[in-house]
Design brief:
By secondary structure, this protein is α+β, with helices and mostly antiparallel strands. The chain has one domain: Transcriptional regulator MraZ domain (Chemotaxis protein chec), CATH 3.40.1550. About 35% of the residues lie in helices and about 25% in strands. The protein has five helices and eight strands, in the order E-E-H-E-E-H-H-E-E-H-E-E-H. The strands form two sheets. A six-stranded antiparallel sheet has the order 1-7-8-4-3-5. The chain has a two-stranded antiparallel sheet with strand order 2-6. The longest helix is centred in the middle third of the chain and has 12 residues. The radius of gyration is 16 Å and the shape is globular. The two termini are about 20 Å apart.
């Protein structure tokens, strides 16, 4: 289970140091893919297998379902953590998320989100993550 937020960075060799508090739950191998927001999502192998099992139930005759499958699976890459807890994020994923140096890594239950700090700050101050937006959602989500 992942929770919390850590500010970290990517080094000159395009390696992200996964915060120590997340390493055990993540394991040595993981999946990195484009998130549904302007971030990357990092899944332990079992959590990704659970995602894929849900995707496998989508109707392949539905154009939106096929688009979702392409978006999620087509952008998913296997990554490994080295002994220092670092992993290389593929270039195309770094570019998609606007990642250059400073990051925000967030624990979101079964996965991590990795945000470029500037993108995260803009999303947070621009309304994507304002607490006032969650008021009144109790009818839609069990909060």
């Amino acid at each position: 289970m992942f929770r919390g937020k850590v500010q970290n960075s990517i080094d000159g060799k395009n390696r992200v140091i996964i915060p120590a508090k997340y390493r055990d739950a993540l394991g040595k191998e993981c999946i990195v893919t484009k998130g549904l927001d302007d971030c990357l999502e990092v899944y332990p192998m079992q959590a990704w297998a659970d995602e894929e099992a849900r995707y496998a139930t989508l109707p392949r005759t539905d154009v939106e379902a096929r688009a979702l499958l392409r978006y999620r699976s087509g952008n998913a890459e296997n990554c490994e953590l080295d002994k220092q807890g670092r992993m290389v994020i593929p270039q195309f994923l770094r570019e998609e998320a606007g990642i250059e140096k400073d990051l925000v890594t967030i624990g979101v239950l079964d996965h991590l989100e990795i945000w470029a700090k500037e993108v995260y700050d803009a999303a947070r101050t621009g309304g994507l993550m304002k607490s006032d937006d969650f008021v009144g959602m109790s009818g839609k989500f069990p909060i």
